[in-house]
Structures are given as structure tokens and as C-alpha cells.
Write a structure and sequence with these properties.
The chain is of the alpha+beta class. Helix content is 19%, strand content 17%.
């Protein structure tokens, strides 16, 4: 019995761990719980569905509203960006002003695409291409460097001693 047969036996059972779930991966719609999809990706570094080997564009049908930028994709639409792998994520090197949408600018660092953590520009292109082929939006989360603590100048010297009377 293959994983595909197991998926067809029960409509709400994860094809990997067999726990009950209603989560479906996009675009193939196989029932895989989000934990298993994330574990599969973190171990294999591969965005292909473990059941059918089709490239996935998200680990869930319901992408949260935590994205910073949303790109609307159509089949014949070019995103107009050049990417490079960076230590904090994926760096946008060039943004074509004709095709760029929603404020994606040069030197922006992308950390998540459709809630999938990314550390390689090739993965980003695969996810964006599958999203474009399926007319799905691309949700990007952007790296925000930690704010530096402001160091206020020492205005007062509180190192004084009280003399007893």
C-alpha cells in the first residue's frame, strides 16, 4: 500500500503521521499536517510534496495574515526581482520598477514565503513559480533588524555619599 492509497482511505488523516488533521498543502491538496510538512522541509530542504513530489507553494491552505508584503501572481506575470542568498534570509538585489509591486525594494531581506522559512534564493523562486502557475498570492515576511538600544548620555552623577550629621 502506498502513501497515496493511505491518503484516499481517510479524508482527514495525515499521510505521514496518520494523525487527524484538516490541513492540505498547496497546490496538490494532499492531507499533511503542518508539523509534518515543516519537519519534512527542515530535514530534506525540499519543497516537493512527500506524496506526489510536486513542488508545494505553501504548507497550508490558510496562510496567516502575518505577511509584510503580498505579491499578486498571474500566469503570465513576471515578478521582476533578482534574489541572492544572504545570512538572514534571501536578499532582493534588483527590483524592476515596471514589474515590482507592493513596495518590494532592493536590499530587502525575505525570511518567509507563504509561511515557509527560506534561506536559499532557489527555494524562493520555486515557491513563487508554483504560486504564479496556480494564480495564488505570494505572502512575504521581511527581516527586520533588531532595534539598537539608545544610549543616553550620563546627565547626572548619582555616585555621591551622604555624610552623617
Amino acid at each position: 500500500m502506498t502513501n497515496m492509497d493511505v491518503c484516499n482511505l481517510e479524508d482527514d488523516e495525515c499521510c505521514i503521521c496518520y494523525n487527524r488533521t484538516s490541513n492540505r498543502v498547496n497546490p496538490c491538496k494532499h492531507i499533511i499536517c503542518k508539523c509534518c510538512a515543516e519537519r519534512w522541509y527542515s530535514v530534506k530542504k525540499d519543497i516537493r510534496c512527500p506524496v506526489c513530489k510536486q513542488n508545494m507553494c505553501s504548507f497550508t491552505e490558510n496562510i496567516s495574515k502575518r505577511s509584510d508584503i503580498v505579491l499578486f501572481a498571474k500566469q503570465n506575470h513576471e515578478f521582476g526581482i533578482t534574489l541572492k542568498t544572504d545570512t538572514n534570509g534571501v536578499l532582493v538585489k534588483l527590483s524592476d520598477k515596471k514589474n515590482a509591486t507592493c513596495g518590494l525594494k532592493t536590499n530587502t531581506i525575505i525570511t518567509h514565503v507563504n509561511e515557509i522559512p527560506v534561506d536559499n534564493h532557489q527555494i524562493v523562486f520555486k515557491i513563487m513559480e508554483v504560486s504564479r502557475q496556480n494564480n495564488m498570492c505570494v505572502h512575504l515576511r521581511i527581516y527586520k533588524p533588531p532595534k539598537e538600544k539608545r544610549r543616553w548620555p550620563k546627565l547626572f552623577n548619582f555616585n555621591f555619599r551622604l555624610k552623617p550629621r
